[in-house]
Amino acid sequence: MAELMENEVVRAFSTYAVIVVVKMLLMGPMTGYYRFTRGSFSNEEDVARKSAEEKKKLLKTHPDVERVRSCKSTKMAELMENEVVRAFSTYAVIVVVKMLLMGPLTSYNRFARGSFSNEEDVARKSSEEKKQLLKTHPDVERVRRCHHNDLENIIPFVIVGLLYALTGPELSVALLHFRIFAGARIFHTIAYIGALPQPSRALSWVVGMLVTFSMAYRVLNTVLFL
Protein backbone atom coordinates (compact mmCIF):
# COMPACT_ATOMS: atom_id res chain seq x y z
CA MET A 1 0.00 0.00 0.00
CA ALA A 2 2.87 2.37 0.81
CA GLU A 3 4.43 1.70 -2.61
CA LEU A 4 1.03 2.22 -4.25
CA MET A 5 0.63 5.65 -2.64
CA GLU A 6 4.07 6.62 -3.96
CA ASN A 7 2.71 6.23 -7.50
CA GLU A 8 2.09 9.75 -8.82
CA VAL A 9 -0.99 8.72 -10.81
CA VAL A 10 -2.58 7.08 -7.75
CA ARG A 11 -1.79 10.14 -5.67
CA ALA A 12 -3.31 12.41 -8.32
CA PHE A 13 -6.44 10.26 -8.46
CA SER A 14 -6.70 10.22 -4.65
CA THR A 15 -6.39 14.02 -4.55
CA TYR A 16 -9.14 14.71 -7.06
CA ALA A 17 -11.37 11.92 -5.75
CA VAL A 18 -11.25 13.53 -2.30
CA ILE A 19 -11.98 16.95 -3.83
CA VAL A 20 -15.15 15.82 -5.61
CA VAL A 21 -16.33 13.70 -2.65
CA VAL A 22 -15.89 16.65 -0.27
CA LYS A 23 -17.76 18.85 -2.77
CA MET A 24 -20.61 16.34 -2.76
CA LEU A 25 -20.64 16.18 1.06
CA LEU A 26 -20.85 19.98 1.29
CA MET A 27 -24.15 19.93 -0.60
CA GLY A 28 -25.82 18.62 2.58
CA PRO A 29 -24.90 21.62 4.77
CA MET A 30 -25.75 23.92 1.85
CA THR A 31 -29.22 22.37 1.63
CA GLY A 32 -29.66 22.90 5.38
CA TYR A 33 -28.55 26.53 5.06
CA TYR A 34 -31.09 27.24 2.32
CA ARG A 35 -33.87 25.50 4.27
CA PHE A 36 -33.34 27.78 7.26
CA THR A 37 -32.74 31.01 5.33
CA ARG A 38 -35.67 30.43 2.94
CA GLY A 39 -37.99 28.96 5.57
CA SER A 40 -38.63 25.78 3.62
CA PHE A 41 -38.96 22.42 5.42
CA SER A 42 -40.32 19.04 4.35
CA ASN A 43 -40.82 17.13 7.64
CA GLU A 44 -43.38 17.79 10.40
CA GLU A 45 -40.81 17.22 13.14
CA ASP A 46 -38.62 20.02 11.74
CA VAL A 47 -41.29 22.57 12.71
CA ALA A 48 -42.87 20.72 15.65
CA ARG A 49 -42.52 23.70 18.01
CA LYS A 50 -44.15 26.16 15.64
CA SER A 51 -47.81 27.22 15.65
CA ALA A 52 -50.26 25.74 13.15
CA GLU A 53 -50.14 28.95 11.07
CA GLU A 54 -46.34 28.98 11.00
CA LYS A 55 -46.25 25.30 10.03
CA LYS A 56 -48.35 26.02 6.94
CA LYS A 57 -45.86 28.68 5.87
CA LEU A 58 -42.76 26.60 6.59
CA LEU A 59 -43.86 23.20 5.24
CA LYS A 60 -43.43 24.16 1.62
CA THR A 61 -40.89 23.88 -1.15
CA HIS A 62 -38.68 26.73 -2.29
CA PRO A 63 -36.96 26.99 -5.69
CA ASP A 64 -33.54 27.71 -4.16
CA VAL A 65 -33.75 24.64 -1.89
CA GLU A 66 -34.96 22.44 -4.74
CA ARG A 67 -32.14 23.69 -6.98
CA VAL A 68 -29.50 22.63 -4.45
CA ARG A 69 -31.24 19.30 -3.84
CA SER A 70 -31.49 18.55 -7.55
CA CYS A 71 -27.82 19.42 -8.00
CA LYS A 72 -27.00 16.92 -5.26
CA SER A 73 -29.28 14.05 -6.14
CA THR A 74 -30.30 14.12 -9.80
CA LYS A 75 -27.18 12.49 -11.21
CA MET A 76 -27.12 9.81 -8.50
CA ALA A 77 -30.82 9.10 -8.95
CA GLU A 78 -30.38 8.79 -12.70
CA LEU A 79 -27.39 6.52 -12.20
CA MET A 80 -29.26 4.21 -9.82
CA GLU A 81 -32.16 3.98 -12.29
CA ASN A 82 -29.74 2.38 -14.75
CA GLU A 83 -30.49 -1.36 -14.66
CA VAL A 84 -26.88 -2.35 -15.38
CA VAL A 85 -25.60 -0.22 -12.49
CA ARG A 86 -28.24 -1.72 -10.19
CA ALA A 87 -27.26 -5.23 -11.28
CA PHE A 88 -23.58 -4.44 -10.69
CA SER A 89 -24.37 -3.02 -7.25
CA THR A 90 -26.25 -6.21 -6.33
CA TYR A 91 -23.50 -8.63 -7.32
CA ALA A 92 -20.70 -6.39 -6.05
CA VAL A 93 -22.32 -6.38 -2.61
CA ILE A 94 -22.73 -10.18 -2.74
CA VAL A 95 -19.04 -10.85 -3.42
CA VAL A 96 -17.82 -8.14 -1.03
CA VAL A 97 -19.97 -9.55 1.80
CA LYS A 98 -18.65 -13.01 0.98
CA MET A 99 -15.12 -11.62 1.25
CA LEU A 100 -15.89 -9.87 4.55
CA LEU A 101 -17.15 -13.14 6.04
CA MET A 102 -13.68 -14.62 5.62
CA GLY A 103 -12.50 -12.52 8.59
CA PRO A 104 -14.92 -14.08 11.11
CA LEU A 105 -14.22 -17.49 9.57
CA THR A 106 -10.49 -16.98 10.19
CA SER A 107 -11.17 -16.00 13.80
CA TYR A 108 -13.41 -19.03 14.30
CA ASN A 109 -10.68 -21.35 13.07
CA ARG A 110 -8.08 -19.64 15.25
CA PHE A 111 -10.14 -20.26 18.38
CA ALA A 112 -11.32 -23.71 17.35
CA ARG A 113 -7.80 -24.88 16.40
CA GLY A 114 -5.95 -22.96 19.13
CA SER A 115 -3.74 -21.11 16.67
CA PHE A 116 -2.78 -17.47 17.27
CA SER A 117 -0.15 -15.20 15.74
CA ASN A 118 0.09 -12.27 18.19
CA GLU A 119 1.46 -12.25 21.75
CA GLU A 120 -1.40 -10.08 23.04
CA ASP A 121 -3.94 -12.69 21.93
CA VAL A 122 -2.59 -15.10 24.56
CA ALA A 123 -1.30 -12.58 27.11
CA ARG A 124 -3.21 -14.18 30.01
CA LYS A 125 -1.97 -17.68 29.31
CA SER A 126 0.97 -19.40 30.99
CA SER A 127 4.33 -19.68 29.22
CA GLU A 128 3.65 -23.31 28.37
CA GLU A 129 0.21 -22.53 26.95
CA LYS A 130 1.65 -19.65 24.91
CA LYS A 131 4.10 -22.01 23.23
CA GLN A 132 1.23 -24.27 22.23
CA LEU A 133 -1.07 -21.47 21.04
CA LEU A 134 1.43 -19.26 19.20
CA LYS A 135 1.69 -21.52 16.19
CA THR A 136 0.24 -21.85 12.74
CA HIS A 137 -2.43 -24.37 11.83
CA PRO A 138 -3.14 -25.63 8.30
CA ASP A 139 -6.89 -24.91 8.58
CA VAL A 140 -6.27 -21.31 9.66
CA GLU A 141 -3.69 -20.79 6.93
CA ARG A 142 -6.06 -22.24 4.34
CA VAL A 143 -8.77 -19.71 5.24
CA ARG A 144 -6.23 -16.88 5.22
CA ARG A 145 -4.99 -17.87 1.77
CA CYS A 146 -8.58 -18.00 0.53
CA HIS A 147 -9.20 -14.53 1.99
CA HIS A 148 -6.04 -13.21 0.33
CA ASN A 149 -7.17 -14.65 -3.00
CA ASP A 150 -10.49 -12.84 -2.58
CA LEU A 151 -8.67 -9.55 -2.08
CA GLU A 152 -6.65 -10.11 -5.25
CA ASN A 153 -9.73 -10.84 -7.36
CA ILE A 154 -12.80 -9.14 -5.89
CA ILE A 155 -11.29 -5.67 -5.53
CA PRO A 156 -10.30 -5.56 -9.25
CA PHE A 157 -13.80 -6.83 -10.12
CA VAL A 158 -15.45 -4.01 -8.17
CA ILE A 159 -13.28 -1.35 -9.80
CA VAL A 160 -13.42 -2.71 -13.35
CA GLY A 161 -17.07 -3.73 -12.97
CA LEU A 162 -18.15 -0.21 -12.07
CA LEU A 163 -16.33 1.23 -15.08
CA TYR A 164 -17.82 -1.52 -17.24
CA ALA A 165 -21.35 -0.72 -16.02
CA LEU A 166 -20.83 2.93 -16.95
CA THR A 167 -19.96 2.03 -20.57
CA GLY A 168 -23.60 1.09 -21.20
CA PRO A 169 -23.42 -2.64 -22.01
CA GLU A 170 -26.51 -4.72 -22.76
CA LEU A 171 -28.25 -5.75 -19.52
CA SER A 172 -28.28 -9.44 -20.46
CA VAL A 173 -24.54 -9.41 -21.23
CA ALA A 174 -23.73 -7.48 -18.05
CA LEU A 175 -25.80 -9.86 -15.92
CA LEU A 176 -23.98 -12.80 -17.49
CA HIS A 177 -20.63 -11.29 -16.47
CA PHE A 178 -21.75 -10.44 -12.93
CA ARG A 179 -23.46 -13.77 -12.27
CA ILE A 180 -20.60 -15.86 -13.60
CA PHE A 181 -18.08 -13.93 -11.49
CA ALA A 182 -20.17 -14.18 -8.30
CA GLY A 183 -20.78 -17.89 -8.87
CA ALA A 184 -17.11 -18.53 -9.62
CA ARG A 185 -15.93 -16.76 -6.47
CA ILE A 186 -18.46 -18.51 -4.24
CA PHE A 187 -17.49 -21.88 -5.70
CA HIS A 188 -13.80 -20.96 -5.34
CA THR A 189 -14.32 -20.39 -1.61
CA ILE A 190 -16.17 -23.69 -1.22
CA ALA A 191 -13.43 -25.50 -3.13
CA TYR A 192 -10.65 -23.82 -1.12
CA ILE A 193 -12.15 -24.23 2.36
CA GLY A 194 -13.47 -27.70 1.60
CA ALA A 195 -10.16 -28.77 0.03
CA LEU A 196 -11.93 -30.10 -3.07
CA PRO A 197 -9.66 -31.87 -5.54
CA GLN A 198 -8.04 -29.80 -8.26
CA PRO A 199 -8.66 -28.46 -10.85
CA SER A 200 -11.97 -27.34 -9.29
CA ARG A 201 -10.43 -24.39 -7.45
CA ALA A 202 -8.12 -23.44 -10.30
CA LEU A 203 -10.94 -23.48 -12.85
CA SER A 204 -13.18 -21.26 -10.70
CA TRP A 205 -10.29 -18.82 -10.26
CA VAL A 206 -9.63 -18.74 -14.02
CA VAL A 207 -13.33 -18.21 -14.81
CA GLY A 208 -13.55 -15.26 -12.42
CA MET A 209 -10.39 -13.71 -13.81
CA LEU A 210 -11.59 -14.12 -17.41
CA VAL A 211 -14.80 -12.27 -16.52
CA THR A 212 -12.79 -9.35 -15.14
CA PHE A 213 -10.55 -9.32 -18.23
CA SER A 214 -13.63 -9.40 -20.47
CA MET A 215 -15.08 -6.35 -18.71
CA ALA A 216 -11.70 -4.59 -18.84
CA TYR A 217 -11.55 -5.20 -22.60
CA ARG A 218 -15.00 -3.65 -23.01
CA VAL A 219 -13.95 -0.60 -20.99
CA LEU A 220 -10.72 -0.10 -22.93
CA ASN A 221 -12.46 -0.71 -26.25
CA THR A 222 -15.05 1.94 -25.38
CA VAL A 223 -13.07 4.70 -23.70
CA LEU A 224 -9.40 4.11 -24.58
CA PHE A 225 -7.65 7.47 -24.76
CA LEU A 226 -3.86 7.50 -25.12
Automatic annotation (TrEMBL):
Keyword RNA-binding: no
Catalysed reactions, semicolon-separated: RX + glutathione = an S-substituted glutathione + a halide anion + H(+)
Keyword Membrane in annotation: yes
Subcellular location: Endoplasmic reticulum membrane; Mitochondrion outer membrane
EC class (word): transferase
Lipid bilayer topology: Multi-pass membrane protein
UniProt-listed Enzyme Commission number(s): 2.5.1.18
Its job: Conjugation of reduced glutathione to a wide number of exogenous and endogenous hydrophobic electrophiles.
Keywords, comma-separated and alphabetical: Acetylation, Endoplasmic reticulum, Membrane, Mitochondrion, Mitochondrion outer membrane, Transferase, Transmembrane, Transmembrane helix
SUPFAM superfamilies found in the cross-reference section: MAPEG domain-like
Lineage: superkingdom: Eukaryota
Family: Belongs to the MAPEG family.
TM ranges: 12-34, 84-101, 151-167, 202-220
Molecular function GO labels: glutathione transferase activity
One GO cellular component term noted in the UniProt record for this chain: endoplasmic reticulum membrane
Main location: endoplasmic reticulum
Subunit structure, as described in the record: Homotrimer; The trimer binds only one molecule of glutathione.
Gene name of the record: LOC109194535
Name used for this protein in its record: Microsomal glutathione S-transferase 1
